[in-house]
């Protein structure tokens, strides 16, 4: 199976968010080809959730799971720590009061 480059996936994700009128922007530009992607959902009430892709060794399935959830400052600290560990990391921030991130939609899961 052919994998999409990180940059291609990020651009497609941002386009899908724009189509739904959900503001989002790139906080950290990682490696264009193989950088991991982390998505931070900011609900604009002081709370946030950070998601990252996880690989299930038993099923071979890749899915989005929570990395951190709670006070936005604490979530930002977790995101920052990930960035220190992985310099190729992409960080996308989504801002939506309704908590929409679209990561569970077909093609993004």
How would you describe this protein?
The structure is a single chain. With 109 residues, the protein is an alpha+beta fold. It contains 2 helices and 5 strands. The chain has helices at 6-19, 72-85, and strands at 24-28, 37-42, 47-55, 62-71, 90-95. The protein has a 5-stranded mixed sheet. The longest helix is centred in the N-terminal third of the chain and has 14 residues, at 6-19. It holds the Pfam family DUF1491. InterPro entries: DUF1491.
Label this structure with key terms.
DUF1491; 2 helices; hypothetical protein tt1805; 109 residues; alpha+beta; DUF1491 domain-containing protein; five-stranded mixed beta sheet
Radius of gyration, CA atoms, in whole angstroms:
13 Å
Specify the CATH homologous superfamily. Answer: Protein of unknown function (DUF1491)
Please, what is the oligomeric state? single chain
Query: How many DSSP helices?
Result: 2
Unreliable residue stretches:
none
Major sheet details: 5 strands, mixed
Round the mean pLDDT to the nearest integer and report it.
92
User: How many beta-strand runs?
Assistant: 5
- As a percent range, the share of strand residues is 25-35%
Terminal CA distance reads 16 Å
CATH topology: hypothetical protein tt1805
Mass-distribution shape: globular
Order of helices and strands: HEEEEHE
Helix residue percentage: 25-40%
Protein name: DUF1491 domain-containing protein
InterPro entries: DUF1491
Organism: Parasedimentitalea denitrificans
């Amino acid at each position: 199976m052919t994998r999409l480059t990180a940059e291609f996936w990020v651009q497609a994700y941002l386009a899908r968010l724009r189509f739904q009128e959900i503001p989002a922007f790139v906080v950290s530009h990682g490696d264009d080809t193989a950088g991991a992607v982390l998505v931070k959902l900011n609900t604009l009430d002081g709370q946030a959730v950070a998601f990252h892709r996880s690989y299930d060794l038993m099923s071979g399935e890749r899915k989005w799971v929570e990395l951190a959830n709670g006070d936005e400052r604490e979530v930002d600290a977790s995101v920052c720590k990930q960035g220190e560990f992985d310099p190729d990391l992409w960080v996308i921030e989504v801002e939506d009061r309704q908590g929409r991130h679209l990561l569970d939609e077909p093609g993004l899961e």
